[in-house]
Amino acid sequence: MTDRRWRLTAIWLIIALTPFFATCALTNNETGAIYGYVRDSQTQQIMVGVVVECEAAWVETGTDGSYYLDGITEGWRSIHAEATGYGDYSDAVSVSGQTRYDIEMDVAVGVSHVFGVVSRPGQGPIEGALVDLDGRTKTTGADGSYEFWNVPRDSETLTVTLDGYRSYTTPLYLDEDDEEIDVTLLLLGSVTLDAIADATVRQDIPDTPLGMWPTLDLFYSPSWHFRFLVCFDLTVLPTTAVAEACTLHLTNTWDASGEDAIPTLVARNTETWEEMEVTWGNAPFIEGASYATTLFTPPVYDIEVTGFVDDWLSGYAVNHGLTIDTSEDPTATRFSFASREHEETEWRPKLVVHYAY
Protein backbone atom coordinates (compact mmCIF):
# COMPACT_ATOMS: atom_id res chain seq x y z
CA MET A 1 0.00 0.00 0.00
CA THR A 2 2.78 2.32 0.93
CA ASP A 3 4.59 1.77 -2.41
CA ARG A 4 1.38 2.49 -4.27
CA ARG A 5 0.97 5.78 -2.39
CA TRP A 6 4.52 6.89 -3.33
CA ARG A 7 3.95 6.03 -6.95
CA LEU A 8 0.76 8.10 -7.05
CA THR A 9 2.47 10.98 -5.28
CA ALA A 10 5.38 10.97 -7.76
CA ILE A 11 3.03 10.97 -10.76
CA TRP A 12 1.07 13.86 -9.26
CA LEU A 13 4.24 15.91 -8.72
CA ILE A 14 5.40 15.34 -12.27
CA ILE A 15 2.05 16.50 -13.69
CA ALA A 16 1.93 19.51 -11.39
CA LEU A 17 5.48 20.73 -12.06
CA THR A 18 5.54 20.24 -15.85
CA PRO A 19 3.99 23.70 -16.64
CA PHE A 20 6.47 25.36 -14.27
CA PHE A 21 9.53 23.92 -16.00
CA ALA A 22 8.08 24.65 -19.43
CA THR A 23 7.49 28.28 -18.46
CA CYS A 24 11.06 28.65 -17.23
CA ALA A 25 12.41 27.26 -20.47
CA LEU A 26 10.43 29.81 -22.49
CA THR A 27 11.15 32.89 -20.38
CA ASN A 28 14.73 32.41 -19.35
CA ASN A 29 16.19 34.31 -22.36
CA GLU A 30 19.70 35.76 -22.15
CA THR A 31 20.26 39.45 -22.97
CA GLY A 32 23.25 41.26 -24.35
CA ALA A 33 24.25 44.66 -25.65
CA ILE A 34 25.00 46.29 -29.03
CA TYR A 35 27.52 49.08 -29.34
CA GLY A 36 29.55 50.76 -32.05
CA TYR A 37 30.10 53.90 -34.09
CA VAL A 38 28.04 55.61 -36.79
CA ARG A 39 29.87 57.18 -39.76
CA ASP A 40 29.10 58.80 -43.10
CA SER A 41 29.62 56.08 -45.72
CA GLN A 42 31.44 58.42 -48.11
CA THR A 43 33.52 60.68 -45.87
CA GLN A 44 33.92 58.23 -42.95
CA GLN A 45 33.28 61.15 -40.58
CA ILE A 46 31.61 60.31 -37.26
CA MET A 47 27.95 61.28 -36.98
CA VAL A 48 26.54 62.90 -33.84
CA GLY A 49 22.88 62.75 -32.81
CA VAL A 50 21.92 59.72 -34.88
CA VAL A 51 18.98 57.81 -33.40
CA VAL A 52 19.87 54.10 -33.17
CA GLU A 53 17.09 51.67 -32.20
CA CYS A 54 16.88 47.94 -31.50
CA GLU A 55 13.76 46.30 -30.10
CA ALA A 56 12.30 48.89 -27.72
CA ALA A 57 15.65 50.42 -26.82
CA TRP A 58 17.00 53.55 -28.51
CA VAL A 59 19.79 56.03 -28.04
CA GLU A 60 21.41 58.97 -29.82
CA THR A 61 25.07 58.82 -30.78
CA GLY A 62 27.37 60.93 -28.68
CA THR A 63 29.96 63.51 -29.66
CA ASP A 64 32.34 60.74 -30.66
CA GLY A 65 29.71 59.08 -32.87
CA SER A 66 29.28 56.10 -30.54
CA TYR A 67 26.15 54.39 -29.26
CA TYR A 68 25.39 51.66 -26.68
CA LEU A 69 22.16 49.69 -26.37
CA ASP A 70 21.80 47.33 -23.40
CA GLY A 71 19.22 44.69 -22.54
CA ILE A 72 18.88 43.37 -26.07
CA THR A 73 17.64 39.81 -26.39
CA GLU A 74 20.33 37.62 -27.84
CA GLY A 75 19.89 36.20 -31.31
CA TRP A 76 19.16 37.86 -34.62
CA ARG A 77 17.69 41.31 -34.07
CA SER A 78 16.74 44.23 -36.32
CA ILE A 79 18.66 47.47 -35.88
CA HIS A 80 17.61 50.84 -37.28
CA ALA A 81 19.24 54.26 -37.53
CA GLU A 82 17.85 57.67 -38.55
CA ALA A 83 19.54 61.02 -39.14
CA THR A 84 18.47 64.24 -40.83
CA GLY A 85 19.70 64.37 -44.42
CA TYR A 86 20.45 60.66 -44.55
CA GLY A 87 18.51 57.66 -45.76
CA ASP A 88 17.04 55.44 -43.05
CA TYR A 89 19.29 52.53 -42.13
CA SER A 90 18.06 48.99 -41.34
CA ASP A 91 19.89 45.70 -40.96
CA ALA A 92 19.90 42.43 -39.02
CA VAL A 93 22.56 41.80 -36.40
CA SER A 94 23.39 38.68 -34.41
CA VAL A 95 23.47 39.67 -30.72
CA SER A 96 25.62 37.62 -28.38
CA GLY A 97 26.92 39.18 -25.23
CA GLN A 98 28.68 42.46 -25.92
CA THR A 99 28.29 42.80 -29.70
CA ARG A 100 30.05 45.51 -31.64
CA TYR A 101 28.21 46.71 -34.74
CA ASP A 102 29.38 49.79 -36.64
CA ILE A 103 26.95 51.61 -38.95
CA GLU A 104 27.66 53.55 -42.16
CA MET A 105 24.88 55.80 -43.43
CA ASP A 106 24.32 57.13 -46.95
CA VAL A 107 23.37 60.70 -47.66
CA ALA A 108 19.72 60.83 -48.65
CA VAL A 109 19.29 61.11 -52.42
CA GLY A 110 16.32 63.19 -53.46
CA VAL A 111 14.25 62.53 -56.54
CA SER A 112 13.31 64.67 -59.51
CA HIS A 113 10.67 64.70 -62.21
CA VAL A 114 12.59 64.73 -65.50
CA PHE A 115 10.74 65.65 -68.67
CA GLY A 116 11.21 67.34 -72.02
CA VAL A 117 10.63 67.32 -75.77
CA VAL A 118 12.77 65.71 -78.47
CA SER A 119 12.75 67.64 -81.74
CA ARG A 120 14.67 68.33 -84.94
CA PRO A 121 15.72 71.90 -85.82
CA GLY A 122 13.12 73.51 -88.06
CA GLN A 123 11.10 70.28 -88.27
CA GLY A 124 9.34 70.08 -84.92
CA PRO A 125 8.78 67.18 -82.49
CA ILE A 126 10.12 63.68 -83.15
CA GLU A 127 7.94 60.70 -82.34
CA GLY A 128 9.40 57.29 -81.48
CA ALA A 129 12.78 58.38 -80.11
CA LEU A 130 14.15 56.14 -77.35
CA VAL A 131 15.10 58.08 -74.21
CA ASP A 132 17.36 56.20 -71.78
CA LEU A 133 17.96 57.55 -68.29
CA ASP A 134 20.46 55.29 -66.55
CA GLY A 135 18.68 52.17 -67.80
CA ARG A 136 15.11 53.43 -67.51
CA THR A 137 13.59 53.95 -70.95
CA LYS A 138 10.73 55.89 -72.48
CA THR A 139 9.62 56.40 -76.09
CA THR A 140 8.60 59.89 -77.19
CA GLY A 141 4.96 60.40 -78.13
CA ALA A 142 3.48 62.17 -81.13
CA ASP A 143 4.32 65.53 -79.53
CA GLY A 144 7.93 64.45 -78.96
CA SER A 145 7.51 64.46 -75.20
CA TYR A 146 8.89 62.13 -72.54
CA GLU A 147 8.96 62.11 -68.76
CA PHE A 148 10.40 60.13 -65.87
CA TRP A 149 9.07 60.31 -62.31
CA ASN A 150 11.04 59.71 -59.12
CA VAL A 151 14.46 59.96 -60.73
CA PRO A 152 17.26 59.74 -58.13
CA ARG A 153 19.27 62.94 -58.18
CA ASP A 154 22.51 61.04 -58.43
CA SER A 155 21.49 59.73 -61.86
CA GLU A 156 24.29 60.25 -64.36
CA THR A 157 23.33 60.17 -68.04
CA LEU A 158 20.45 60.83 -70.44
CA THR A 159 20.76 59.33 -73.93
CA VAL A 160 18.37 59.73 -76.88
CA THR A 161 18.56 57.51 -79.96
CA LEU A 162 16.55 56.98 -83.14
CA ASP A 163 17.49 55.21 -86.36
CA GLY A 164 18.71 57.68 -88.95
CA TYR A 165 19.60 60.32 -86.36
CA ARG A 166 22.79 61.14 -84.50
CA SER A 167 22.53 59.89 -80.93
CA TYR A 168 22.48 62.46 -78.14
CA THR A 169 24.04 62.01 -74.71
CA THR A 170 24.25 64.49 -71.85
CA PRO A 171 25.44 64.20 -68.24
CA LEU A 172 22.81 64.90 -65.59
CA TYR A 173 23.03 67.39 -62.74
CA LEU A 174 19.69 67.09 -60.99
CA ASP A 175 18.93 69.42 -58.10
CA GLU A 176 15.35 70.58 -58.70
CA ASP A 177 12.01 68.84 -58.17
CA ASP A 178 11.17 69.43 -61.85
CA GLU A 179 13.97 69.21 -64.41
CA GLU A 180 13.17 70.02 -68.04
CA ILE A 181 15.67 68.65 -70.55
CA ASP A 182 14.75 69.36 -74.17
CA VAL A 183 16.77 67.50 -76.78
CA THR A 184 17.59 68.35 -80.39
CA LEU A 185 18.37 65.41 -82.67
CA LEU A 186 20.19 65.84 -85.96
CA LEU A 187 19.37 63.73 -89.00
CA LEU A 188 22.26 61.74 -90.47
CA GLY A 189 23.29 62.00 -94.11
CA SER A 190 26.20 61.16 -96.39
CA VAL A 191 27.51 62.29 -99.74
CA THR A 192 30.46 61.42 -101.98
CA LEU A 193 31.99 64.44 -103.70
CA ASP A 194 34.25 64.64 -106.75
CA ALA A 195 37.25 66.96 -106.68
CA ILE A 196 36.71 70.32 -108.42
CA ALA A 197 40.46 71.01 -108.59
CA ASP A 198 43.68 69.09 -107.95
CA ALA A 199 47.34 69.41 -108.89
CA THR A 200 50.78 68.03 -108.07
CA VAL A 201 53.59 70.48 -107.25
CA ARG A 202 57.26 69.47 -107.42
CA GLN A 203 60.28 71.07 -105.81
CA ASP A 204 62.60 70.10 -108.69
CA ILE A 205 60.45 72.04 -111.20
CA PRO A 206 59.18 74.85 -108.99
CA ASP A 207 57.67 76.97 -111.78
CA THR A 208 55.97 74.25 -113.79
CA PRO A 209 52.19 73.83 -113.38
CA LEU A 210 51.10 70.20 -113.36
CA GLY A 211 47.34 70.54 -113.02
CA MET A 212 46.77 68.66 -116.24
CA TRP A 213 48.63 65.56 -115.01
CA PRO A 214 46.58 62.39 -114.59
CA THR A 215 48.25 61.70 -111.23
CA LEU A 216 48.69 63.30 -107.82
CA ASP A 217 52.18 62.42 -106.57
CA LEU A 218 53.31 61.97 -102.98
CA PHE A 219 57.04 61.44 -102.46
CA TYR A 220 59.84 62.93 -100.35
CA SER A 221 63.41 61.66 -100.57
CA PRO A 222 66.68 63.58 -100.18
CA SER A 223 66.55 64.27 -103.93
CA TRP A 224 62.86 64.63 -104.71
CA HIS A 225 59.84 66.21 -103.07
CA PHE A 226 56.33 65.85 -104.56
CA ARG A 227 53.09 66.87 -102.88
CA PHE A 228 49.63 67.78 -104.12
CA LEU A 229 46.62 70.03 -103.61
CA VAL A 230 42.97 69.03 -103.85
CA CYS A 231 39.67 70.86 -103.36
CA PHE A 232 36.00 69.86 -103.10
CA ASP A 233 32.78 71.88 -103.25
CA LEU A 234 30.91 71.60 -99.94
CA THR A 235 28.06 73.94 -100.84
CA VAL A 236 25.94 70.91 -101.81
CA LEU A 237 25.66 70.02 -98.12
CA PRO A 238 22.88 71.48 -95.92
CA THR A 239 23.86 74.77 -94.33
CA THR A 240 23.36 73.23 -90.88
CA ALA A 241 25.55 70.20 -91.59
CA VAL A 242 28.02 69.07 -88.95
CA ALA A 243 30.85 66.72 -89.93
CA GLU A 244 30.65 63.23 -88.44
CA ALA A 245 33.30 61.27 -90.38
CA CYS A 246 35.08 62.43 -93.53
CA THR A 247 37.55 60.52 -95.68
CA LEU A 248 39.69 61.56 -98.65
CA HIS A 249 39.47 58.53 -100.91
CA LEU A 250 42.38 58.07 -103.35
CA THR A 251 43.43 55.31 -105.76
CA ASN A 252 47.10 54.52 -106.16
CA THR A 253 48.39 53.88 -109.70
CA TRP A 254 52.09 53.33 -108.87
CA ASP A 255 52.74 49.59 -108.88
CA ALA A 256 55.99 49.84 -106.90
CA SER A 257 54.49 51.60 -103.86
CA GLY A 258 54.48 48.55 -101.60
CA GLU A 259 51.70 47.60 -99.25
CA ASP A 260 52.13 50.10 -96.41
CA ALA A 261 50.90 53.67 -96.08
CA ILE A 262 53.50 56.38 -95.51
CA PRO A 263 53.33 59.21 -92.95
CA THR A 264 50.75 61.55 -94.41
CA LEU A 265 50.60 65.24 -93.57
CA VAL A 266 47.39 67.15 -94.20
CA ALA A 267 47.12 70.94 -94.07
CA ARG A 268 44.52 73.60 -94.86
CA ASN A 269 45.23 75.97 -97.75
CA THR A 270 44.72 79.58 -96.68
CA GLU A 271 44.45 81.13 -100.15
CA THR A 272 42.76 80.51 -103.46
CA TRP A 273 44.71 78.72 -106.19
CA GLU A 274 44.12 77.80 -109.80
CA GLU A 275 44.42 74.20 -110.87
CA MET A 276 46.23 74.95 -114.14
CA GLU A 277 48.50 77.64 -112.67
CA VAL A 278 49.58 76.45 -109.22
CA THR A 279 53.24 75.45 -108.86
CA TRP A 280 55.69 74.71 -106.09
CA GLY A 281 56.80 78.33 -106.24
CA ASN A 282 53.36 80.00 -106.02
CA ALA A 283 51.44 77.43 -103.94
CA PRO A 284 49.22 78.90 -101.22
CA PHE A 285 50.27 79.16 -97.60
CA ILE A 286 49.03 76.38 -95.35
CA GLU A 287 47.98 76.02 -91.71
CA GLY A 288 46.90 73.33 -89.29
CA ALA A 289 49.31 70.72 -90.64
CA SER A 290 49.07 67.39 -88.85
CA TYR A 291 49.70 63.72 -89.48
CA ALA A 292 46.48 62.03 -90.50
CA THR A 293 45.13 58.58 -89.86
CA THR A 294 45.46 56.58 -93.05
CA LEU A 295 44.41 53.19 -94.34
CA PHE A 296 46.02 51.65 -97.40
CA THR A 297 44.26 48.67 -98.88
CA PRO A 298 45.93 48.49 -102.28
CA PRO A 299 45.13 50.28 -104.43
CA VAL A 300 42.80 52.36 -102.20
CA TYR A 301 44.43 54.95 -99.94
CA ASP A 302 42.08 56.59 -97.39
CA ILE A 303 43.01 59.70 -95.41
CA GLU A 304 40.92 60.84 -92.43
CA VAL A 305 40.08 64.58 -92.78
CA THR A 306 37.04 65.06 -90.52
CA GLY A 307 38.53 67.95 -88.55
CA PHE A 308 39.28 69.98 -91.66
CA VAL A 309 35.82 69.48 -93.14
CA ASP A 310 34.23 70.37 -89.80
CA ASP A 311 36.22 73.63 -89.74
CA TRP A 312 34.87 74.53 -93.18
CA LEU A 313 31.27 73.62 -92.38
CA SER A 314 31.32 75.53 -89.09
CA GLY A 315 32.77 78.63 -90.72
CA TYR A 316 35.96 78.47 -88.68
CA ALA A 317 38.00 78.36 -91.88
CA VAL A 318 37.40 79.14 -95.57
CA ASN A 319 37.44 76.16 -97.88
CA HIS A 320 40.48 76.49 -100.15
CA GLY A 321 41.09 72.76 -100.13
CA LEU A 322 43.94 70.72 -98.71
CA THR A 323 47.63 70.16 -99.29
CA ILE A 324 48.76 66.55 -98.86
CA ASP A 325 52.44 65.99 -98.06
CA THR A 326 54.74 63.47 -96.39
CA SER A 327 57.90 63.51 -94.32
CA GLU A 328 61.40 63.01 -95.73
CA ASP A 329 62.59 59.42 -95.86
CA PRO A 330 65.76 58.14 -97.61
CA THR A 331 63.92 54.91 -98.34
CA ALA A 332 60.68 56.64 -99.21
CA THR A 333 57.98 54.90 -101.17
CA ARG A 334 56.34 56.87 -103.96
CA PHE A 335 52.60 57.05 -104.43
CA SER A 336 50.91 58.30 -107.59
CA PHE A 337 47.19 58.68 -107.07
CA ALA A 338 44.74 59.11 -109.92
CA SER A 339 43.83 62.79 -110.35
CA ARG A 340 40.52 64.14 -111.59
CA GLU A 341 42.05 64.14 -115.08
CA HIS A 342 42.67 60.39 -114.97
CA GLU A 343 40.91 58.38 -117.65
CA GLU A 344 39.50 55.92 -115.10
CA THR A 345 36.69 58.01 -113.60
CA GLU A 346 36.11 55.68 -110.66
CA TRP A 347 39.75 56.15 -109.59
CA ARG A 348 39.51 59.92 -109.33
CA PRO A 349 39.70 61.63 -105.88
CA LYS A 350 36.57 61.44 -103.76
CA LEU A 351 35.62 63.06 -100.50
CA VAL A 352 33.23 60.86 -98.54
CA VAL A 353 31.33 63.00 -96.01
CA HIS A 354 29.12 61.59 -93.28
CA TYR A 355 27.31 64.43 -91.57
CA ALA A 356 24.43 65.37 -89.30
CA TYR A 357 22.00 68.22 -89.93
Protein architecture, described:
With 357 residues, the protein is mostly beta strands. It has 3 domains: 31-105, Carboxypeptidase-like, regulatory domain (Immunoglobulin-like, Sandwich); 111-185, Immunoglobulin-like (Sandwich); 189-356, Jelly Rolls (Sandwich). 10% of the residues lie in helices and 46% in strands. The protein has helices at 2-27, 306-314; strands at 31-40, 51-54, 57-60, 66-73, 75-82, 89-95, 98-100, 103-105, 111-120, 124-125, 130-133, 136-139, 145-152, 157-161, 168-171, 178-180, 183-184, 188-202, 215-220, 225-232, 242-251, 264-269, 286-291, 294-297, 300-304, 322-326, 335-338, 350-356. Strands 18, 19, 20, 21, 22, 23, 24, 25, 26, 27 and 28 form an 11-stranded antiparallel sheet that branches. The protein is elongated, with a radius of gyration of 40 Å. Mean pLDDT is 91; it is low at 1-28.
Compact overview of the structure:
The protein has 357 residues and is mainly beta.
Protein traits:
357 residues, disordered N terminus, eleven-stranded antiparallel beta sheet, Jelly Rolls, Immunoglobulin-like, 3 domains, five-stranded mixed beta sheet, single chain, mainly beta
